[in-house]
């Protein structure tokens, strides 16, 4: 199937883009890499009458380091993160996450702003940017806003963006030298969306003790609900210990709590999914423990 007919605009400035978007009303949509929108249009699940292509706007590709981190233009492609063609302020997490997205053809065109605006909780950027507490900067004809990614993602394919609002930049804070990160993507084969996606950020109890227990730890899980989940109960189970103290099976109970499920009432499919998430989180933890500091 092919998409129905649409009007096509390719602005060259952000001002022009937001004016076109506002003028198109409810029937207008921006397109960045097109790696999510085009398949959806081809399946006729979305039928925008007007498409505003952002790839002609150089300002949306700009990336700059700041005193606190970096601001990545919304149309920065996954490939530019993967190959470190843009500064990495996360000591490897951004390139690592980008390299796991789809296939090279997807990464060459797909963009960080498009992935966040699409809000698929099985995708890499929503969970990674939530864990990093990143902020999106937006523009519309009414002005600008700064929205934490944790507040942007409201559910499956649903965000806090207004219909006439554009993500212009994604701001990521620099990770402290003492912060360790780990990530694990569970998927059936490389190139597929995650069945489970775990991201760990944390500090050891004693900074110099590479094998010491976790003190401050944040665990995030993608592909488990309609948006990335912060795993507070699982964090409490991990704090003060290491992955060696915890078999994945011991994470099932706190994970059930974090995902709002009663373990005694789960059918075999739901139990399998929880066990999968437990293994994912455990592997992300181990990856973080294996990471060198600095
Ligand atoms: C076969 C295949 C495999 C894939 N595998 C993965 C995977 O493993 N992991 C993963 O994370 N992703 C995967 N993807 C998705 C891919 O990463 C997409 O590129 C990404 O989700 C969307 O980015 P895009 O730039 O292509 O956005 P588009 O498809 O152009 O747009 C997506 C949505 O975002 C909106 N939008 C785009 N840019 C902006 C903006 N700046 N401001 C406001 N709204 C905007 C559009 O209007 C549209 O609603 C896969 C895609 C395919 C086709």
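-> sequence recovered:
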């Amino acid at each position: 199937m092919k998409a129905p007919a649409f009007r096509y605009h390719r602005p060259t400035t952000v001002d022009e883009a937001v004016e076109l978007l506002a003028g198109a009303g409810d029937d207008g949509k921006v397109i960045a890499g097109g790696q999510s929108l085009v398949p959806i249009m081809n399946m006729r699940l979305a039928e925008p009458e007007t498409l505003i292509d952002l790839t002609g706007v150089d300002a949306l590709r700009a990336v700059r380091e700041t005193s606190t981190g970096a601001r990545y233009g919304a149309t920065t492609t996954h490939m530019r993160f993967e190959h470190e063609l843009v500064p990495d302020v996360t000591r490897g997490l951004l390139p690592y996450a980008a390299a796991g997205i789809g296939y090279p053809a997807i990464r060459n065109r797909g963009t960080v702003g498009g992935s966040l605006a699409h809000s698929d909780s099985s995708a890499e950027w929503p969970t990674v940017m939530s864990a990093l507490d990143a902020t999106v900067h937006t523009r519309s004809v009414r002005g600008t806003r700064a929205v934490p990614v944790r507040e942007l993602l409201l559910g499956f394919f649903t965000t806090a963006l207004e219909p006439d609002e554009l993500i212009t930049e994604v701001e990521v804070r620099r990770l402290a030298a003492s912060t360790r990160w780990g990530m694990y993507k569970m998927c059936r084969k490389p190139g597929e969306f995650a069945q489970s996606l775990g991201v760990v950020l944390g500090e050891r109890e004693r900074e110099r003790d590479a094998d010491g227990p976790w003190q401050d730890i944040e665990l995030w899980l993608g592909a488990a609900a309609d948006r990335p989940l912060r795993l507070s109960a699982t964090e409490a189970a991990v704090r003060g210990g290491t992955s060696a103290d915890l078999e994945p099976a011991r994470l099932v109970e706190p994970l059930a709590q974090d995902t709002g499920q009663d373990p005694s009432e789960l059918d075999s499919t739901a139990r399998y999914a929880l066990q999968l998430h437990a293994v994912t989180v455990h592997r992300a933890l181990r990856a973080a423990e294996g990471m060198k500091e600095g």
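The first helix runs from residue 14 to 24.
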